[in-house]
């Protein structure tokens, strides 16, 4: 593999954590290419390996107009001299937005499709049609989520913080692949997922990666407490994200910021018991901040 990652822990400081005698350790995975941060390299690792072993000249995947996954796939493909295609939700997308501009800078060919057609992104007939149309391209599902992605994430040690064993592992949840990976790797530590999308089918999507013939650690999904609709946030949440920049911690309000905000609310309400040692996966996604600024959605300033 041309891509390499390194792992880090960061002990976050905040008055709420002090008041409730709670430790919060951010788990970082960084890559030599910063456009493949957080959960992305882990989710792509085995899919890239498969594509390379099977000698596919390209990767094809799916995403929205501001998708972190599209950028990561475009970057990973370029690092391996592979071609890439991004099937983008919505015929009306602005291919000059910062996310899609970055994808194109990596050579990704963008194919905007109607929202109606995009809804078939998991359906076999359309996937087969795309395979016939683009036989050179290894298909990666939306968000990268599949069994191979779960395996990649499962290899991340979230349990053993520098201060000792964590009492709870936490991550933001979109398509469910990341939390499924954490559950696989959790040994006996409980796992908490903060759902940043409103998707009643999410628990089942996660369970499909947790075969019933194995006893899994305890896990739970809670809806993000700020604004449950995907992508929605306000000034207060953005200010919460900015509050950590003096500790060199950057958060965006769609995934990590919203999930961490929810964690603080759960600490204050006693749902997360005082005295806990939390291990929170910083899943990356910072490129999205440029897209939010581009759309004028960030009240005030950007993080330094
Ligand atoms: C920054 C960020 N955090 C968390 C997630 C959620 O991961 P998953 O879709 O595997 O639930 C995503 C989506 O991949 C993401 O881009």
Question: Can you tell me about this structure?
Answer:
Helix 2 packs across helix 3, helix 2 crosses helix 7 and helix 7 (147-154) crosses helix 8. The chain folds into 2 domains: 5-38 and 147-294, Rossmann fold, CATH 3.40.50; 41-144, Rossmann fold. The radius of gyration is 19 Å and the shape is globular. It has helices at 15-19, 39-53, 68-79, 98-105, 115-118, 124-133, 147-154, 177-185, 202-207, 235-242, 256-268, 288-294, and strands spanning 5-12, 23-31, 58-63, 83-89, 109-113, 137-139, 160-161, 164-165, 168-173, 191-195, 219-223, 277-282. It has 12 helices and 12 strands. A 6-stranded mixed sheet has the order 1-2-12-9-10-11. It has a 4-stranded parallel sheet with strand order 5-4-3-6. Strands 7-8 form a two-stranded antiparallel sheet. The chain is α/β, with parallel strands linked by helices. Residues 38-39, 68-69, 143, 145, 172-178, 255, 283-285 line the site of pyridoxal-5'-phosphate. The site of pyridoxal-5'-phosphate (PLP) has 17 residues, from helix 3, strand 9 and helix 8. Keywords: Pyridoxal phosphate.
């Amino acid at each position: 593999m041309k891509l390499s990652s390194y792992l880090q822990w960061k002990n976050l400081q905040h008055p709420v954590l002090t008041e409730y005698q709670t430790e919060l350790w951010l788990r970082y995975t960084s890559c030599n290419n910063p456009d493949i941060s957080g959960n992305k390299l882990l989710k792509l690792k085995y899919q890239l390996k498969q594509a390379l072993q099977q000698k596919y000249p390209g990767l094809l995947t799916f995403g929205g107009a501001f998708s972190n996954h599209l950028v990561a796939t475009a970057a990973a493909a370029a690092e391996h001299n592979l071609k890439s295609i991004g099937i983008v939700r919505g015929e009306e997308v602005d291919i000059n937005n910062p996310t899609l501009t970055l994808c194109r800078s990596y050579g990704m060919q963008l194919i905007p499709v109607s929202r109606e057609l995009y809804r078939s992104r998991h359906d076999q007939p359309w996937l087969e049609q795309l395979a016939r149309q683009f036989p050179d391209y290894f298909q990666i599902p939306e968000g990268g989520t599949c069994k191979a992605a779960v395996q990649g994430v499962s290899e991340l040690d979230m349990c053993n913080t520098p201060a000792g064993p964590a009492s709870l592992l936490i991550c933001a949840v979109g398509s469910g692949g990341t939390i499924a990976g954490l559950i696989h790797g959790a040994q006996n530590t409980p796992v908490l997922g903060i759902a940043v999308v409103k998707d009643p089918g999410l628990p089942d999507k996660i369970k499909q990666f947790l075969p019933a013939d194995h006893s899994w650690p305890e896990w739970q999904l809670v809806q993000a407490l700020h604004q449950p609709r995907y992508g929605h946030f306000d000034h207060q949440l953005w200010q919460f994200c900015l509050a950590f920049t003096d500790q060199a911690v950057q958060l965006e309000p769609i995934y990590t910021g919203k999930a961490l905000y929810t964690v603080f609310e759960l600490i204050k309400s006693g749902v997360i018991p005082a005295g806990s040692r939390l291990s929170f996966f910083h899943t990356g996604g910072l490129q999205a901040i440029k897209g939010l600024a581009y759309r004028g959605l960030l009240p005030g300033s950007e993080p330094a």
